[in-house]
């Protein structure tokens, strides 16, 4: 070890081995090569940083090949520069291949940016979801049905990409489905993986539509294997079902125009809890109250005929009738007529006639 160190020291003390230095400088190709190499080594990280790095290195080493061939006239310089340039070009080709492999079709790329990127879903996870639907985009022509009430089996889950779909039941319009909404989320959530069922609504394309569809069994296998994807679909489906419920909120109203809001379950205590217990008898009583003196005008005392039509005071008193508004705000609005409420939502706990505020 000491002998090697002493030999290195002697070489340093002897000075340069060059007999004479060149008086002229190298040509422009040599300096251009070094500038390109300097710029290349200043590249950053990431995919585009690697493109920058290997791009400039390739150009720099190619300039070194030219310098070694025309100016230096050294075979070793040409060979090493050529080898390094080839390595950098191969690395660039590998990066291009990886970028092309990661590129998604236009529809799926837009879906990722709209639906999954705001939730910070990793791209690799999104590719697994897309792979489950075989990267196929299906289409519906205008007035073509996606599902028929009572006939189409529930064997898939679909997401609308473009167009508009009309949902109806027994020929009655319920709501629309817009792009990036699930087309059959209530049906998907209503069945267990081992159960089978049919659609309770009819879905018809109002315009030319495109959508993607996951087979039921394949998607269940993916959700069972990947917990993160299962949580993601639970959140997306829950949000989609809630949006459909709020869309149908405009169809819920009381007999006298009092609009009902499913977001306010405490409304039940305001509208009157006794109305829910009265059942059909309360409805019958309401009809009698709204027509008090029409059926038997001769049996009503003369002093009572001047009272408001929706209130009949006791015969033994002469107290003034309370305002009609106070009388109509409790029993009649306590029962909501929602017979047109879709039955495919009743499976979540809704009934045909629901007391105000008792919708779960």
UniProtKB/TrEMBL annotation:
Organism of provenance = Gorilla gorilla gorilla (Western lowland gorilla)
A Pfam family the protein falls into: POPDC1-3
| Intracellular or extracellular location(s) | Membrane
Q: Name one GO cellular component term.
A: membrane
What's this protein's family per the entry? Answer: Belongs to the popeye family.
Keyword field contains Membrane: yes
Q: Where is this region: Disordered?
A: 276-307
Alphabetical list of InterPro entries matching this protein: cNMP-bd_dom_sf, POPDC1-3, POPDC1-3_dom
Q: Which domain of life is it from?
A: Eukaryota
Specify where it is mainly localized: membrane
What topology in the membrane does the UniProt record assign? Multi-pass membrane protein
- Keyword terms of this UniProt record: Membrane, Transmembrane, Transmembrane helix
Q: Which residues cross the membrane?
A: 46-70
Q: What is this protein called?
A: Popeye domain cAMP effector 2
Bias regions of kind Polar residues — which residues? 297-306
Q: Name all POPDC1-3 domain ranges.
A: 26-251
């Amino acid at each position: 070890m000491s002998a090697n160190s002493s030999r290195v020291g002697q070489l340093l003390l002897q000075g340069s081995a060059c007999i004479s230095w060149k008086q002229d400088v190298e040509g422009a190709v040599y300096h251009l090569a070094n500038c390109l190499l300097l710029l290349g080594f200043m590249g950053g990280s990431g995919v585009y940083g690697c493109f920058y790095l290997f791009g400039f290195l390739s150009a720099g080493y190619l300039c070194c090949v030219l310098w070694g061939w025309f100016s230096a006239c050294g075979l070793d310089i040409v060979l090493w520069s050529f080898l390094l340039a080839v390595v950098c070009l191969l690395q660039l080709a590998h990066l291009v291949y990886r970028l092309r492999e990661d590129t998604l079709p236009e529809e799926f790329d837009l879906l990722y940016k709209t639906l999954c990127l705001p939730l910070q879903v990793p791209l690799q996870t999104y590719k697994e979801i897309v792979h489950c639907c075989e990267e196929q985009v299906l289409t519906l022509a205008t007035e073509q049905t996606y599902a028929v009430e009572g006939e189409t089996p529930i064997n898939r889950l679909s997401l609308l990409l473009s167009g508009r779909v009309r949902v109806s039941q027994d020929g009655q319009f319920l709501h629309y489905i817009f792009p990036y909404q699930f087309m059959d989320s209530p049906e998907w959530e209503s069945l267990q993986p081992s159960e089978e069922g049919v659609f309770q609504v009819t879905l018809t394309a109002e315009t030319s539509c495109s959508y993607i569809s996951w087979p039921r069994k394949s998607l269940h296998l993916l959700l069972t294997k990947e917990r993160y994807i299962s949580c993601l679909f639970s959140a997306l489906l829950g949000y989609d079902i809630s949006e459909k419920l709020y869309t149908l909120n405009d169809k819920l109203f009381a007999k006298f125009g009092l609009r009902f809001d499913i977001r306010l379950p405490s409304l039940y205590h305001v509208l009157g809890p006794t109305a829910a217990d009265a059942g059909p008898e309360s409805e019958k009583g309401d009809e009698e109250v709204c027509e008090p003196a029409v059926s038997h005008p001769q049996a009503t005392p003369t002093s009572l005929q001047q009272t408001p039509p929706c209130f009949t005071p006791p015969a033994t008193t002469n107290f003034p009738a309370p305002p009609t508004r106070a009388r109509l705000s409790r029993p009649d609005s306590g029962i909501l007529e929602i017979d047109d409420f879709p039955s495919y939502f009743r499976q979540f706990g809704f009934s045909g006639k629901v007391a105000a505020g008792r919708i779960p």
